[in-house]
Specification:
Number of domains: 2
Structural class: alpha/beta
Number of strands: 9
Helix content: 40-55%
Strand order of the largest sheet: 1-6-2-5
Radius of gyration: 28 Å
Largest sheet: 4 strands, mixed
Number of helices: 15
Strand content: 5-15%
Shape: elongated
């Protein structure tokens, strides 16, 4: 059935407020981002509430249908506590029913299941319904981006690349089936790689959801110009990001091999996160190629090179060694000189990338000889 918000609020008040959630697995969890959005929709866009909200699931011990109304006994909200409490809070903030609700109140989809009695088989059924109404596959923030036009465009752009003889299959959806024998590039890994290299390796260390927030996060920087998201990624921007992805893939493998053989515990600890190394690699590449670093790196967008092999592979091996040296030296300096040094905090500190860059620019790179220009694809060997 469909009820308006005023009916939901009145039911909450008349049934003893929080007691209506006794069978729910959790009560209202506070002013989370999601709950704030529920409240904002109820206040500013009530006509769309029915379309945007998942609705409420309830149990009762008795239900009588009077056609013009439904009479229930023992009503319990088993899924939808956040919706109910958000509507109640909107009403409380207005100290009465919000004026806009008089003509167009938010409409809520409500399902009520009658389970007479509370023990034996009826009790077991009640518990099962509560459990399964609150069980679902986890939805990641990245899932909401999978149908963006820029993501569909990337799928086509990557498909034109032959990576070591294999078709490249970009997958914006976690449920996408892989093309047989293809090199798979997944949205979340791609986003982490690009953001760590071009922007910062620490911002998303707490939660990858940051990468897919267009306003306060990194989405418009990865898939746009920093202020808005592209409908279609420009070819030069795509080539730069594709080159960064293949660089990260090679660096990741090399890093894994070297950490496995490393006997110095501090060096091994410093290289725990690939993303800090990737950010250091950008500093190194900028040093060697100056204002042309993007065009130089973009020459490798097909990924047609291997670490240490051929002209490109040798250039990138030097980049890897320099970046690694910068990260390790910055880590050891911090451990030796920073009071209260904590490994985990260093890995997540906003100052860490800056300190690594300082070590690279003032100690390591100043004694290096210039690197040759990056060969074009036809000259790569």
């Amino acid at each position: 059935m469909a009820l308006d918000a005023k009916q939901i609020v009145n039911a909450y008040k008349s049934l003893g407020s929080e007691s209506i959630f006794s069978l729910n697995i959790r009560n209202f969890i506070g002013n989370t981002v999601t709950n704030k959005r529920i409240m904002l929709t109820a206040q500013k866009n009530p006509l769309s509430f029915f379309l945007f909200n998942n609705g409420i699931s309830c149990l009762c011990t008795s239900l009588i249908d009077h056609r013009d109304r439904v009479e229930v006994t023992g009503l319990q909200v088993i899924n939808g506590a956040q919706t109910v409490k958000a509507l109640v809070n909107v009403a409380r903030a207005s100290k009465s029913t919000p004026p806009e609700w008089n003509e167009t109140p938010p409409i809520v989809l409500v399902r009520i299941t009658e389970i007479p009695g509370g023990y034996g088989q009826a009790g077991q059924m009640r518990e099962s319904i509560t459990q399964f109404n609150n069980t679902q596959n986890v939805i990641k923030v990245s899932d909401f981006r999978s149908n963006d036009s820029v993501q569909m465009g990337l799928k086509e752009q990557f498909s034109k690349i032959r990576y070591r003889g294999k078709q490249v299959d970009y997958q914006p959806k976690r449920t996408d089936k892989s093309v047989r024998n293809a090199e798979v590039v997944r949205l979340e890994e791609f986003a982490k790689t690009v953001y760590a290299f071009l922007e910062d390796p620490v911002d998303f260390s707490g939660a990858t959801a940051f990468l897919f927030d267009e306003q306060a996060g990194g989405y418009s920087k990865i898939f746009g110009d920093g202020s808005s998201v592209w409908e279609q990624m420009p070819e030069d921007e795509f080539r730069l990001r594709a080159a960064v992805y293949w660089l990260s893939k090679e660096f990741g493998q090399r890093l894994k091999e070297e950490r496995k053989l490393e006997t110095d515990p501090d060096t091994r600890s410093a290289l725990e996160r690939k993303w800090i190394l990737m950010n250091a690699a950008r500093t190194v590449i900028q040093h060697y190629y100056g204002s042309h670093w993007k065009s130089q790196l973009s020459k490798t967008y097909k990924g047609d090179w291997a670490m240490g092999e051929g002209a490109r592979g040798k250039i990138f091996l030097q980049v890897f060694r320099d970046a690694k040296a910068g990260v390790v030296m910055a880590y050891k300096n911090a451990k030796a000189h920073d009071p209260g040094f904590v490994h985990r905090n260093w890995m997540r500190s906003k100052s860490t990338p800056t300190k690594v860059a300082e070590v690279l620019n003032t100690i390591i790179l100043v004694v290096r000889d210039p690197l040759p220009e990056m060969p074009d694809s036809t000259q790569a060997t």
